[in-house]
Amino acid sequence: MQHGVVKKTALYDFHVAHGGKMVDFAEWSMPVQYSDLSIAASHLHTRSVSLSLSPSLSVCLFDTIDHNILITRLSSWFGIHGSVLNCLKR
User: Fold this and answer.
1) Contact 53, 61 (CB under 8 A)
2) Which of 41, 53, 60, 82 could form a disulfide with 37 if both were Cys (CB 3.0 to 4.6 A apart)?
3) Per residue in 35-68, pLDDT tens?
């Protein structure tokens, strides 16, 4: 790994398009805040979304043995598509 090179996640363009303030974190460019939300509102939104998704993702990931079922669930249940979903495909 070259020093100073920051990697981008598959969701980088999504975050930027939605006003994400990107910062370097452990060699990755990550969003810390969105332009339409205060820091406190951004924190509360993230907590509420992650807490509401946790049980569903748990069922989706850990109640699935068949990889094709997992991919289908991520797409239909959570709307994950494109390069993010392609990263998970075998």
Assistant:
1) no
2) 41
3) 888 888 877 776 666 545 555 555 555 555 677 8
Segment holding 32, helix H or strand E:
strand 28-34
Dig out the tokens for 19 from the structure.
């006003």
CB 31 within 8 A of CB 11: no
| Look-up of token digits 């205060």 | 38
Sign of the alpha-carbon torsion through 75, 11, 40, 57:
positive
Q: Tally DSSP H helices, then E strands, for the chain.
A: 4, 3
Residue 34 in contact with residue 19, Cβ under 8 Å? yes
